[in-house]
Write a structure and sequence with these properties.
Length: 273
């Protein structure tokens, strides 16, 4: 499979990885619906598998490697050019958890209705990209891209909620991660999470290290960093508004924290993007 030089959206059936364009991981945001067989791949230093009736999503530039399709694989692949998707992301204020969930969990397990929505979303976006004679082609395609993302985020959010409910009786570590995802916008102290789990901060660190070799404070910082990046990318929010939204006591304290986790000030990060 070779995409046209300026193709923004590509939709095709695939049975082999040879049908994927060269360097697709860096050039495109990849969406695969596995209709038959399975997909094996490494993602963020972990091994993953997408099976029949499951959906796989990789952002361009994700740490994806060793992609292989089973001999009986058949699937629908949607590729969206990197900058086109990124430049048309809707406001993430209400969807930040769904977006982060999709970045950390690349395999989605949709139900029958969501499966229909995914196929429909694939086709609508592709069809709109082909209507180059439309008087308002660019505006219509951008709106279709935003609708596509909102629909997909909705499906990811639904799965995220189901997973949260299933984890309520899970291990201490799983419950800790769930709490961090829920509260790290405003709570960044290990003691807050230890108190919620009715254990000491020292024991919480031991639990995290036993499961991942990473202490609780670093997990909190990681999830906080991801939210800061997403909020800074939304230029409709001022830096002061972001600091207030994340419950920092002052603008200067927020700036110092961002320098610690991003290596530069919030203003410098915005200039870079």
């Amino acid at each position: 499979m070779v995409t046209a030089k300026n193709q923004i959206v590509t939709l095709f059936k695939a049975t082999s990885t040879e049908e994927l364009p060269p360097n697709f991981q860096s050039k495109f945001h990849t969406h695969i619906y596995c209709e038959r067989g399975s997909v094996q791949f490494n993602f963020n230093n972990g091994s993953w598998q997408g099976k029949t009736d499951e959906f796989i999503f990789w952002l361009a530039g994700s740490e994806v490697s060793d992609v292989s399709f089973s001999p009986n694989f058949r699937g629908t692949v949607l590729l969206v050019e990197k900058s086109f998707l990124t430049d048309n992301v809707p406001s993430v204020n209400r969807s930040i958890d769904a977006l982060l969930y999709s970045m950390e969990n690349p395999v989605l397990h949709p139900g029958k209705q969501d499966k229909k929505k995914i196929f429909s979303n694939f086709q609508l976006l592709y069809d709109r990209s082909q209507e180059t004679d439309h008087r308002f082609y660019e505006e219509a395609l951008k709106l279709q891209m935003q609708l596509f993302l909102l629909e997909m985020w909705h499906i990811f959010a639904e799965e995220h909620e189901r997973r949260k409910r299933s984890l309520q009786s899970g291990t201490l570590y799983e419950r800790f991660v769930q709490l961090v995802q829920q509260h790290c916008m405003i709570e960044r102290e290990v003691k807050f999470y230890a108190d919620r789990l009715h254990i000491t901060p020292k024991y919480l660190n031991q639990v995290c290290k036993a499961n991942t070799s990473i202490p609780a404070s670093q997990w909190i910082q990681r999830y906080t960093k991801e939210r800061i990046i997403l909020l800074l990318q939304n230029k409709n929010l001022s830096i002061a508004e972001i600091a207030d939204k994340m419950n920092f006591s002052s603008y200067s304290f927020f700036t110092r924290y961002v320098k610690k986790v991003l290596g530069m000030s919030p203003r410098a990060y915005r200039k870079r993007i």
